[in-house]
Design goal:
alpha+beta
Length: about 160
Amino acid sequence: MLVDLTQYLWIVWIVFVLICVIIELLTLEFTFLMIGAGSLIGGLGVNLLGGEWYWQVAAAAIVAALLLFTIRPLLLKTLRRGGDVRGSNTNVDALAGMRARVTAPFDGHGQGFAKLANGETWTARLAPAHETTTLTEGDRVIVVRVDGATVEVAPEERSAPA
């Protein structure tokens, strides 16, 4: 008694699709999702229509390739459009332009401490354009740039009362 294993190929397609979905959940690049969808539509579809195994594989490959090269780029473009953060500074880059308040008078070398608006206290030094400025405790400053563990600050410009 010889059993024809090709009659159980639909189980192989479903297992393969589930494996692709699990891998997609781990990678989040839409590649395995497209391969899984191609296998589901092409491979399992031809299987259910009674096609031979080689037609199933060919259909799965063709549909997956079409999805990879047509739908996937559109999905990635749509996904990245809403989350484009290239213009948003984070971490240390976000400190430039932040307001701060001097917490210890600056010494003769233009060095002191400043508490930034985010609550962090940093070692601070005066920006080269303001080296002759005298800052005392409580003065408001603006972070010009970050240099290692030190922020360069400049006195905040105050608008004249109207």
